[in-house]
Amino acid sequence: MNETINALRFLGLDMVDEANSGHPGIVLGAAPVLYQLFTKHLNITAEDAHWFNRDRFVMSAGHGSALLYAVYHLAGFDITMSDLKAFRQVGSITPGHPEYGHTHGIEATTGPLGQGIGNAVGMAIAEAHLRARFNQGHLNVVDHYTYVLCGDGDLQEGVAMESLALAGHLGLDRLVVLFDSNDIQLDGPTTDATSMHIKGFIKSLGFDYFKVDDANDLEAIDRAIKQAKVSPNPAFIEIKSVIGFGAKDAGTANVHGAPLGKEETARIKAAFDYPYGPFEVPKAAYEDFMHTLGERARQANFAWQETLDSYADRYPKDYEALEDIMNRRTSARFDSLMPLEPLGTSEATRNTIGKLLNTLSGHIPAMIGGSADLSVSTKVKGNDGLFTKQTPTGRNIQYGVREHAMAAITNGLALHRMRAFAGGFFIFSDYMKPSIRLAALMQLPSMFIFTHDSVAVGEDGPTHEPIEQLATFRSTPGLVTLRPADANETRHAIRFALEAQKTPTVLALTRQNVPVVSDVDYETFKQGAYVLKKHKEPEGILIATGSEVSLALEVSDYLESEHNLFVNVVSMPSMDRFISQPQKVQDSVLPPTLTKRLAIELGSTGLWYRFASHVHGIDTFGASGKGDEVLKHFGFTKDAVAKAYLNIK
After folding, report:
1. List of residues 6+ apart from 184 with CB closer than 8 A
2. Closest of 151, 178, 175, 145 to residue 163, by C-alpha
3. Taking Cα atoms as reference points, which of 466, 622, 637, 614 lies closest to residue 543?
4. CATH class of 527-646
5. CB of 163 closer than 8 Å to CB of 403
6. Kind and range of the H or E element at 631?
7. CATH (one of 2.70.50.60, 3.60.21.10, 3.40.50.970, 3.40.50.300) for 2-299
8. Per-residue pLDDT at 521 exceeds 90
9. Which run of H or E residues covers position 150?
10. What is the mean pLDDT of residues 436-458?
11. Which stretches within 291-402 are classed as H helix?
12. Among candidate residues 177, 140, 143, the one with its CA nearest the CA of residue 37
């Protein structure tokens, strides 16, 4: 037992020393916590790492990755000793912070503090919902816990505060937060930065609070976790540890984020009576994990497989729906569920998305989400009523004004294989950007649906009018940003988001009504851009997105009738998709010989110069006034745009 804990400690220190980079403090201090959790409670298995009913463990304190890799190595996951020796090296599967999909067994990409707590809350929501939705009698096909380890720094981040507040409100009784409480952060004692009374604060949120006075007291940790697991509320266990336990500078910021060095590591090994050299592990440590975690989890996995087989026989329709979720499969017939709107009709695309979500949710049980106290305006909400402790089958999450937590929780839901979506005003995507970036890094099909996408918001003014947000998301690797022109492009956009397997999607939709101008087919839409209006011998091209597509058509018609100029109109709902197409496809939409081009968009201009030599956009903040007056102020009228095109030499 103690020898295994020391094996974890010193594997972690050896990794940090070898890389000459890392965080040894948490490795020495928190090793007993992870040891006790993994060997006594957690149900995960290396043989079936994606077993759907496994417990989830999220290392929110992602800087403790060396400790986590050491645990997974001893537990038999696909992390070899060579992998540990390559810690923090280019091309290794043991990067500086844990990465989902990159390293065997890692449940979430963590490192930006607080994010893992939000992810864990999302996982716990998914478990509670699926447990209520699918379990029948004694056949519990969804029945597991979500654990998260956090540190002092996590609990100072707003995203964690928001997430914990919602978790307490929702009464997520299968969520267990393990707090490695050592009173130190990088810049010194936590008392320099906070005076929070953690017990009082946590209990005020609706958590049950437990405390372990010494992280080396394994029996106390075990008792606390047992109590947490039967708690009727989410549980928070504060475990007092000593950062860098055993080191000369233990209990100080000096051991947080810098290697101790091989000499100091050797000294601590001697003090702990651990007679092994660098990257040497006693056989007993492997056997310890095999006979505890290994045997328990294998039995639990086998029992669950038997339960699932019985469930499939007795409840075939429910099993089919659950299987779709487990495999992230969407079997909805989109064409019949979402017939195209007639050309010439008019509708705000925020209204379109509201109707589509309502329709699709009835056919896709995995869909769950909500807006940040804005669903009345965004129209983005889930079906079947509110998700609450009393009504866990509800699929509308009332996030309140918690955009940052909403995005992190959406990722947690997606990690649990739900088709998760979040809604808000586009300007408040600024609060959500860190989580959206992590969705892209994790290759999660999270859906972020934003409305009020331009200065056409009007009277609310520049604080509520997005300018640079489209460029920000279009610049994010692995993220698809869609700005549909009308109701029909919006249909294709939500279909794309729901069919995605490894791609998060941002949808930017209008507050104001826009005419239906497109009847493009889905496959063409997926190219990211297409010719909406085509002349036999055009002299130039107008490129537009969103609400500006109908304006571009007006301008093209005007140029033809008043100036005898034939100008194509290209709708480009997604720059990222278009750029990913073969050059032949790109050239068919934007022929290289047609160099007279004007891009038109209510936002910053920079990225557009890749496609056009001239851009009609906005590189200042917005203005307050009636929507049509603001549009006129910024020159988004037929006459102003036509003039801009005519001035191109």
Report:
1. 25, 152, 190, 243, 251, 252, 253, 256
2. 175
3. 614
4. alpha beta
5. no
6. helix 627-633
7. 3.40.50.970
8. yes
9. strand 146-151
10. 98
11. 295-314, 316-326, 334-337, 349-361, 375-378
12. 177
- For 187-196, the pLDDT digits (tens) are 999 999 999 9
Angstrom distance (rounded) from CA 192 to CA 519: 61
Cα 645 to Cα 649: distance, rounded to the nearest angstrom: 9
Q: From CA 417, how far away is CA 51, in angstroms rounded?
A: 12
Residues in the chain: 649
CATH number attached to the domain at 334-515 = 3.40.50.970
Q: What is the pTM of this model?
A: 0.98
- Can you name the residues that pair with 481 across neighbouring β-strands? 506
The pairing of strands 188-189 and 184-185 is antiparallel
Q: Is the pLDDT of residue 649 over 90?
A: no
Provide the terminal-to-terminal Cα distance of the chain, rounded to the nearest Å.
79
CA distance 496 to 165: 33
Percentage of residues of the chain with pLDDT beyond 70: 100
Segments in 362-402 forming alpha helices (H): 375-378
Q: How far apart are CA 221 and CA 381, in angstroms?
A: 40
Output the pLDDT for position 1.
79
The residue type at 16: V
103: left (phi over 0), alpha (psi -120 to 50) or beta: beta
Residue type, 433: K
The token duo for 131 is 């447990």
Task: Tell me if 342 sits within 8 A of 364, measured CB to CB.
Answer: no
Is residue 636 within 8 Å of 548, Cβ to Cβ? Answer: yes
CA distance readout (Å), 604 to 42, 355, 434, 483: 49, 30, 21, 14
Residue 307's CB: how many other CB atoms inside 10 A? 17
240 forms beta bridges with 181
403 is catalytic: yes
Give the residue carrying structure tokens 């890094």. 441
Domain boundaries, the chain: 2-299, 334-515, 527-646
- The order of strands in the sheet holding 208-212 is 56-59, 146-151, 175-181, 235-240, 208-212
CA distance 81 to 78: 10
Report residue 145 as tokens: 């816990």
What is the Cα–Cα distance from 239 to 235, expressed in whole angstroms? Answer: 13
Three-state secondary-structure class, residue 607: helix
442 to each of 65, 66, 154, 417, how far by Cα in Å? 16, 20, 20, 13
DSSP structure class, residue 291: I
| Residue from 99, 403, 465, 554 carrying the catalytic annotation | 403
Residue found under tokens 């505060």: 161
> Over the chain, what is the mean pLDDT?
97
